[in-house]
Each structure stands twice: as C-alpha cells, then as structure tokens.
Amino acid sequence: MMKFHGPCLLSLIFLLGCVSDPEIVEVSVNGKVKMLLPSSLTLSPKPNPDALLHYEDTIHSIYFLVIAESKDSMKAYEMDLNLNTYFNATCLDLNSRLSGAVNYGLKPETINGLAAFTGFVRGNSGKEKIMYSLATIESKKNFYQLVAAYPTDDSTRWKPVMGGVILSFREL
C-alpha cells in the first residue's frame, strides 16, 4: 500500500486551509492512479471522453482532469514522443484554446519518483481570463497530462492548491 509523502500532505492541507473548504479526499481511479483533491471538486457529469479522471467545482469555475496515454498506442500511430515533446504538445494544445496565451514557469521536476514537466498557461477564452496549471508525467508505460483550469483572477487562491494536487499524483 502506497502512502503519500508527509510534507506534500501537510502542504496541501495548509494550502486548502486558505480556501473555504479545507477538507481533502484521496481519489483512486481504476487502481491506476491515486491523488489528493479538494472535496469541493466532484466528478464531472459530462466527463471529457479522453480523461481518466475529470473533476470540477462549478461554483469556483475550477476544472481538473488527468489523461493517460500509453506509450504502446503512441508507437502504433508512429508517434515518437519523449517527455519534453509530449509537454510541448500539451502546451500547444492549451495555447490553441486561448487567445493571447502565455506560457511561463515551465520546468522539469520529479513527482513521486516520476519524471515530469510542470508549468502554467494563461490567456483568454472569450471574455474569461483563464489560467492552466499543468504537468506531464512519464512512467514506464504511460504519459499523463494533469490539467487544472481556473479563473486568472483567482490564481493566487487556486494556483498553490492545484500545485499541491499535481504533486500528490501517484501511479499505482
């Protein structure tokens, strides 16, 4: 049985204490991945068909999803991706959804023993100012995209919380 790293859990609890709902829940999906989420996020009634996990908080306009793509299926489509090119493709996809998109804070990381890239994309969707916190993570068999979307105006509130969610990701 895997346990979450103590400092990560304490940081997430502290950060969630800064918002109105300090309760966190552990979510496990099909025995594949596990992570901690704010209890204000609930399963999306209209999930993204590509998502392994899709949660939302419509009151705060927050959306979070995890997409898993097997390396074998990518090879079958003759896609030769590494973590860097996969991260860049994810950024390009998010940039295409926003006008005036700006990428920043892009950096390599290790998330619970797995190589990752993390960063942020900010831009406009119509009249809405949107911020994405994102990570791409590479395991032996899969690439994962973790994407959180929330209003830019609330980024000081949600950016650290969603960063804690991303850092809590574990492949089982």
Walk me through the structure.
By secondary structure, the chain is of the alpha+beta class. It has a single domain (6-171), classed as Protein Transport Mog1p, Chain A (3-Layer(aba) Sandwich), CATH 3.40.1000. The chain has four helices and ten strands; from the N terminus they run H-E-E-E-E-E-H-H-E-E-E-E-H-E. It has helices at 6-17, 71-76, 83-96, 155-167, and strands at 24-29, 33-38, 42-43, 53-57, 62-70, 99-111, 114-125, 128-138, 142-151, 170-171. The strands form two sheets. A seven-stranded antiparallel beta sheet has the order 3-4-5-9-8-7-6, sandwiched between helices. A three-stranded antiparallel beta sheet has the order 1-2-10. A hairpin with a 4-residue loop joins strand 4 and strand 5. Helix 1 (6-17) runs antiparallel to helix 4. The longest helix has 14 residues, at 83-96. The protein is globular, with a radius of gyration of 15 Å. It starts with 5 loop residues before the first helix and ends with a strand. Mean pLDDT is 86; it is low at 13-17.
Brief summary:
The chain is built from four helices and ten strands; from the N terminus they run αβββββααββββαβ. Helix content is 26%, strand content 44%.
